[in-house]
Amino acid sequence: MFNQIKEECGVFGIFSPNAVDVVNSCYYGLYALQHRGQESCGIALNDRGVIRHYRDLGLVPDTLTAERLEKLGKGHMAVGHVRYSTTGNLNRSNAQPLVIKHVKGPMALVHNGNVTNAYELRREFELKGAIFHGTSDTEAIAYLITLNRLKTGSIEQAIEKSMERLQGAYSILVMSAQKLIAARDPHGFRPLCMGKTSDGSIVFASESCALDSIGAQFVRDIEPGEIVVVGKDGSLHSIKTHCGNKSSMCVFEFVYFARPDSVIEGACVHEARLRAGAFLAQEYPVDADVVIGVPNSGLDAALGYSRESGIPYGVGFVKNSYIGRSFIQPTQGQRENAVKIKLNPIKSTVAGKRVVMVDDSIVRGTTSGRIVKLLREAGAKEVHMRVSSPPFVSPCYFGTDIDSKENLIACQMDLEGIRRHIEVDSLGYLSVENVKKIAKNAHCNFCTGCFTGKYPVTPPKETPKDKFEMPLLDQKKK
């Protein structure tokens, strides 16, 4: 809608020692993770080895209604998913959980990330007779695990074997007839944590805020490369065959993706954004009357800028929370009006003042230009834009929907050119050096490939979003 970075996916899973209403717990967990994906959602329930599921396009409260949750029933395990498509187009077939039934029993799988060799894996499987129903890379993961399950003694061994071939980013939850398993790629690109409730239930989630939503206590993060198995009796077992690589958490989790109240790898997201704003104030000071943030991820950084600079913080925009992410405008005039519908400046905050506006990123520059125009129309005397991340100069291959270079404004213009394009009085981006420092005391290193073009692993040569939907003739050319 606004040419901004899209969220990723969110996963949630729960194992209860008793047959209880785990579906509702999963529902609340997904509701807490709704910010990570608004295209589709779903829940799979394990009732004494029988897996029932429901998934569809739409938001959690609209899709997973009370009637549908009641039909799923009660059980001792459940996994859920909210999705934004980084690979695979928007259609119901790509909604998760994926539920697989094979000779060694049923399996439900949910996934956050992007498997960079999914196309090669899928083509290999299809040439051997495999049939795929959707266009997401998650199906390739599920098929690989299923193949290995036929040759190994347990589902966790199948996952361990599959990780030898999977490349890229994946935080996955797998629910079999008797076990709940969490696994994270060896570089730890995407977050995944574990918690525990007062009744002994084990919970896994993309972010700690989902644990809080059901009253679970945070236990720890799943290590990069680790597989954690919850047995049928609730016992925990860790497999670390693929551990040992240098961690490479996506730094944009702290800049934008994660909820401010989440704690990831030992660092509070809210505090990280405050630090980003403080670094911005040190790098790009300016004489101004008020600091405002662009809702929502720019707010904490704006507060950090204000505290560090001594410039008063103000509420500059009111955000309309009732516009769905599927609100699409076919004409330029409607797109212009959409900005005004979603964000409206508070004139008393900005009129006649020199304004510092803090946002999390600039992608194409279209959105930023429209927001600046709103401030000018509201009477702002000057607008100085500060960005709490470095310029995007490369695409992301590991689960973030960052555009190709030809659509990134920082690849087409220098700093002064961007400043003129979005019509601000001054412009400053957070440096790569300082973005690595925003998550104080984090137990990880960071991937900054979208800011530097240097990735922790070799990126694929090409990864079109519709790579599984290419016409047959185009595939033959490959």
Automatic annotation (TrEMBL):
<feature type="binding site">
    <location>
        <position position="447"/>
    </location>
    <ligand>
        <name>[4Fe-4S] cluster</name>
    </ligand>
</feature>
<comment type="function">
    <text>Catalyzes the formation of phosphoribosylamine from phosphoribosylpyrophosphate (PRPP) and glutamine.</text>
</comment>
<dbReference type="InterPro" id="IPR017932">
    <property type="entry name" value="GATase_2_dom"/>
</dbReference>
<feature type="binding site">
    <location>
        <position position="250"/>
    </location>
    <ligand>
        <name>[4Fe-4S] cluster</name>
    </ligand>
</feature>
<dbReference type="GO" id="GO:0004044">
    <property type="term" value="F:amidophosphoribosyltransferase activity"/>
</dbReference>
<feature type="domain" description="Glutamine amidotransferase type-2">
    <location>
        <begin position="9"/>
        <end position="233"/>
    </location>
</feature>
<keyword id="KW-0328">Glycosyltransferase</keyword>
<dbReference type="InterPro" id="IPR035584">
    <property type="entry name" value="PurF_N"/>
</dbReference>
<keyword id="KW-0004">4Fe-4S</keyword>
<keyword id="KW-0658">Purine biosynthesis</keyword>
<comment type="similarity">
    <text>In the C-terminal section; belongs to the purine/pyrimidine phosphoribosyltransferase family.</text>
</comment>
<keyword id="KW-0411">Iron-sulfur</keyword>
<dbReference type="InterPro" id="IPR029057">
    <property type="entry name" value="PRTase-like"/>
</dbReference>
<keyword id="KW-0808">Transferase</keyword>
<feature type="binding site">
    <location>
        <position position="297"/>
    </location>
    <ligand>
        <name>Mg(2+)</name>
    </ligand>
</feature>
<keyword id="KW-0460">Magnesium</keyword>
<feature type="binding site">
    <location>
        <position position="359"/>
    </location>
    <ligand>
        <name>Mg(2+)</name>
    </ligand>
</feature>
<dbReference type="InterPro" id="IPR005854">
    <property type="entry name" value="PurF"/>
</dbReference>
<keyword id="KW-0479">Metal-binding</keyword>
<feature type="binding site">
    <location>
        <position position="360"/>
    </location>
    <ligand>
        <name>Mg(2+)</name>
    </ligand>
</feature>
<keyword id="KW-0408">Iron</keyword>
<feature type="binding site">
    <location>
        <position position="396"/>
    </location>
    <ligand>
        <name>[4Fe-4S] cluster</name>
    </ligand>
</feature>
<feature type="active site" description="Nucleophile">
    <location>
        <position position="9"/>
    </location>
</feature>
<dbReference type="Pfam" id="PF13537">
    <property type="entry name" value="GATase_7"/>
</dbReference>
<protein>
    <recommendedName>
        <fullName>Amidophosphoribosyltransferase</fullName>
        <ecNumber>2.4.2.14</ecNumber>
    </recommendedName>
</protein>
<dbReference type="Pfam" id="PF00156">
    <property type="entry name" value="Pribosyltran"/>
</dbReference>
<feature type="binding site">
    <location>
        <position position="450"/>
    </location>
    <ligand>
        <name>[4Fe-4S] cluster</name>
    </ligand>
</feature>
<dbReference type="InterPro" id="IPR000836">
    <property type="entry name" value="PRTase_dom"/>
</dbReference>
<dbReference type="InterPro" id="IPR029055">
    <property type="entry name" value="Ntn_hydrolases_N"/>
</dbReference>
<comment type="pathway">
    <text>Purine metabolism; IMP biosynthesis via de novo pathway; N(1)-(5-phospho-D-ribosyl)glycinamide from 5-phospho-alpha-D-ribose 1-diphosphate: step 1/2.</text>
</comment>
<keyword id="KW-0315">Glutamine amidotransferase</keyword>
